[in-house]
Design goal:
The protein has six helices and three strands; from the N terminus they run αβαααβααβ. It is mainly α. It has a three-stranded antiparallel beta sheet with strand order 1-3-2. The chain is elongated, with a radius of gyration of 18 Å.
């Protein structure tokens, strides 16, 4: 019985690592990536509004954003880095749109690559228009970090 459990655990790890290599992945287009980002932002607006409303942190939502903008920015940064580097390799918006951040070899992205990708994405935000001009639909940041955002079937 113990050997069977160990076998299943080992096989589960092997299958998890090979999942995207054996699946057909298609590069996510600009609209899909934009929609995933919009879902993430909507989630943050709803949560921050609800937090302000429930705990009466500030007199209005706008005042709340003006007062706590840098804390919100830090939380958003950790959100993108954590979820893109986690086991799901996708933020909640990307999960809803069924896209994942993977290496060019179709492997999971680690936290250091996720952090580098997020920081460079904020600095090189105009690089998103390069999606329209290449077949892998990679941004300038994607190319630099050697990652792809793939629609997983």
């Amino acid at each position: 019985m113990l050997l069977k459990v160990l076998y299943l655990i080992v096989m589960d790890e092997i299958l998890d690592e090979k999942t995207y290599e054996t699946r057909e992945v298609k590069p996510a287009d600009f609209i899909t990536r934009l929609a995933a980002f919009a879902v993430d932002i909507i989630i943050f607006i709803i949560l921050s509004y609800g937090l302000n409303y429930a705990f009466k942190i500030s007199t209005s939502y706008v005042a709340f954003l003006q007062l706590y903008w840098w804390q919100i920015l830090i939380i958003i940064s950790f959100y993108f880095i954590y979820f893109d580097g986690s086991e799901s390799n996708a933020t909640l918006g990307k999960q809803i749109m069924n896209i994942r951040l993977l290496t060019e070899e179709k492997r999971d992205v680690d936290f250091s690559t996720s952090a580098k990708h997020y920081i460079l994405s904020t600095v090189l935000f105009l690089g998103y228009f390069s999606i329209l001009m290449n077949e892998k639909k990679q941004t300038t940041t994607d190319k630099f970090c050697k990652v792809i955002v793939a629609k997983v079937r």
